Amino acid sequence: MPRKRRLPFPPGAAASRRVVVLVLLACFASASCSRVAFLKPDASRGDYRRVAPTVDVSTDARSAGALPLVLEARTHLQAGRSAEALTVAKKAVRGDAKSADAHTVLAHALERAGRSAGAGVHFRKAAELAPTRGETLNNYGVWLCTQGRAAESLEWFANAARIPGYATRSGSLANAGACARDAGDAASAEAFSREALRGDATQVVALGTLARVMFEQGRWFEARAFSERRLAAAPEDAASLQLASQIEQKLGDSDAARRYFERMRKLESADGDADPGKLEGR
Predict the structure, then answer these.
(1) Which long-range contacts (CB under 8 A, 24 or more apart) does 223-231 make?
(2) What burial letters (b/e) apply to 165-186, b meaning 16+ CB within 10 Å?
(3) pLDDT value, residue 65
(4) CB 101 within 8 A of CB 55
(5) How does residue 7 score in pLDDT terms, banded at 50, 70 and 90?
(6) What gap in Å lies between CA 80 and CA 162, rounded to an integer?
(7) DSSP per residue over the chain, as a string?
(8) What angle do CA 229, 245, 185 make, to 5 degrees?
(9) In the chain, what percentage of residues exceed pLDDT 90?
(10) In 3D, which of 148, 142, 143 has the Cα closest to residue 171?
(11) Which residue has the higher pLDDT, 219 or 282?
């Protein structure tokens, strides 16, 4: 990866504690490539959720030997058997140290085991082994962002978004926007997020980021518009309802503010999800 940052929008340092639920996809060798979801994205638990960085498990010359172990580790992770997944993923890497997929599944397993530093090593290795696969670059960007190294993560997200045919380009751009906002770089946060919406008008992270940026800049009507779009795009969460209530207070609609607040408290009492600091992205 080049060290020089080349961002598609106004550059700016960024940092973020937001994270996105990783999705692992398996691509079997055949004329028609079938894909199997590893973990389902969960956009209902917040604007900034760990949603859908992807990994393609392929049967090219480098990864064919690791494929059975990669898929076995994936199955263990899917079933919640973290210890078994870690054991098998280590075997996959030992068997084929050049397989980006083996390093990726090991990174997932290490994260499940609470060993985030080790996970970062293998997310980066996967990105270095497969630099033309947007999902590997995005996965490492996500890891950097969650480690308080978002200034570094922006380059990885931007490079992922430049790769032709990358299916979840909008998610990478949305991640970059959320990270830029946390660093106080509102211009880059807005630019990345708007570009994400040009590719996916219902991108939840981008909508949530723009609602917050507009709110923080005192652009109340724009904040309301993005907030309403965010609430319409995915199931409600406590953080987005709280923001909606605050926006209505600034606009002088106390009745609407109260209704959003009541919905927020009802949701909190139902599932206890009141964490406003999550990030989503693809």
Answers:
(1) 223/247, 223/250, 224/248, 224/251, 229/202, 230/47, 230/204
(2) ebebbbbbbbbbbbbbbbbebb
(3) 72
(4) yes
(5) low
(6) 34
(7) --SS---SSS--------------EEE-SSSS--EE-SS---GGG-SB-------EE--STTTTTTHHHHHHHHHHHHTT-HHHHHHHHHHHHHH-TT-HHHHHHHHHHHHHTT-HHHHHHHHHHHHHH-TT-HHHHHHHHHHHHHTT-HHHHHHHHHHHHHSTT-TTHHHHHHHHHHHHHHTT-HHHHHHHHHHHHHH-TT-HHHHHHHHHHHHHTT-HHHHHHHHHHHHHHS---HHHHHHHHHHHHHTT-HHHHHHHHHHHHHHHHHH-------B---
(8) 65
(9) 64
(10) 142
(11) 219
For residue 48, the cross-strand partners are: 279
Token readout for 232 is 């319409």
Round the average pLDDT of the chain to a whole number and report it: 79
Please report, as a single letter, which amino acid is at residue 97.
A
pLDDT digits (tens, 9 = 90+) for 211-222: 999 999 999 999
Structure tokens that stand for 35 in this block: 């894909």
- Angstrom CA distances, 194 to 189, 217, 274, stand at 9, 16, 26
* 199 CB neighbour count, 10 Å cutoff: 16
pLDDT digits 0-9 by tens, 175-185: 999 988 887 88
- Ramachandran bin of 129, using left for φ above 0, alpha for ψ from -120 to 50, beta for the remaining angles: alpha
Look up residue 208 and give its two tokens: 């949530």
